[in-house]
Amino acid sequence: MLNRIVLLSVLALYVFTARATITLSDDKGNKVQLIHPAQRIVSLAPHITESLFAAGAGQKIIATVSYSDYPEAAKKITRVGGYPSLDLEKIISLKPDLIIAWASGNNRDQIARLKTLGFPIYMSEPRQPLEIARNIRNFGLLAGTSEVADKTADAFVARYKKLEQQYARKKKVRVFYQVWHKPIMTVSGKHLISKIIHLCGGSNVFAELSTLTPQVSLESVLLARPQVIVSGGMGKSRPDWLDAWKKWPQLPAVKNGHLYYIDPSIMQRVGPRILQGAEQLCQFLEYAR
Questions:
Q1: Last residue of a domain, which of 124, 158, 192?
Q2: How far is CA 64 from CA 27, 51, 164, in A?
Q3: Burial class (CB in 10 A: 0-12, 13-18, 19+), 249
Q4: Burial class (CB in 10 A: 0-12, 13-18, 19+), 5
Q5: Are residues 151 and 248 in the same domain?
Q6: Are residues 187 and 97 in the same domain?
Q7: pLDDT tens-digit map of 207-246
Q8: What residue numbers bound the domain in which 176 lies?
Q9: What is the pLDDT of residues 162-199, one digit of tens each?
Q10: Residues 255, 233 share a domain
Q11: Which one, of 230, 252, 247, lies nearest residue 239 by Cα?
């Protein structure tokens, strides 16, 4: 009897696999399979929402999370909590045919719970700029909107390569990117923002640290002697704590007036608008040169 059950299970899996029209790997190497293009998508991060719209699949998003505010149409989508704390009951009740999760941002236990319930889940975790283009292409495949997605991805790649040709081989500029001020937080070389700094011909002064978004001391920043300090933050305006560095005139960035702010929504979100942030950063480093 047991052998018969096992045989039937294997046959059922074979039939499903044979019927699956879409098969691809997500950013964590997991296989994602859909029998038909997704029509009811839940997006669990703001950057995922932006990439879905860029892929032509915005109208297929039935729910997303707090701070998914771009494009304008995203503001009208149903919320299922914040990306670190999801409303699982609401997600389940919506009966999505695809969930796209943020590997390093969503609660792992909650994502594991959704997986055990059988929901197809794509894990998004771009660590290189061109992986954003890959996400857009994959989202297009999963949603059946490849014609739009491929054009968007191609344009992203072309824009990236133009910046690379223009700036990547220029004289290096030492950059300190400040995510937050209390405590002082930055990004390591593993972070996508550090890859953008490199794209612009910059050198991340904390690239060697092991943590993705490490906490650093005031003394370590002073010792690193950055030529440019760039701040992110949480809002749409230049934070007061960026100008607090003026108390340390010995820093080359302060001495030469290279304290800059970039809207975190176009620099700290790993979505298609990050090249807008990159263009600003590249220009700031050019000023420093």
A1: 158
A2: 20, 13, 33
A3: exposed
A4: exposed
A5: no
A6: no
A7: 999 999 999 999 999 999 999 999 987 777 899 999 999 9
A8: 168-288
A9: 999 999 999 999 999 999 999 999 999 999 999 999 99
A10: yes
A11: 230
Residues 276 and 185 reside in one and the same domain: yes
| Helices 192-199 + 129-143 axis angle, to 10 | 120
Average pLDDT over the chain reads 93
- 198: amino acid identity, one letter: H
Q: How many CB atoms neighbour CB 149 within 10 A?
A: 26
Burial 171-204 (b: 16+ CB within 10 A, else e): eebbbbbbbbeeebbbbbbebbbbbbbbbbbbbb
What is the distance between the alpha carbons of residues 238 and 85, in angstroms, rounded to a whole number? 28
Distance, in Å, from the CA atom of 281 to the CA atom of 283, rounded to the nearest integer, reads 5
Q: Could you tell me the sign of the dihedral formed by the alpha carbons of 180, 184, 189, 191, in that order?
A: negative
Please give the pLDDT value at position 20: 56
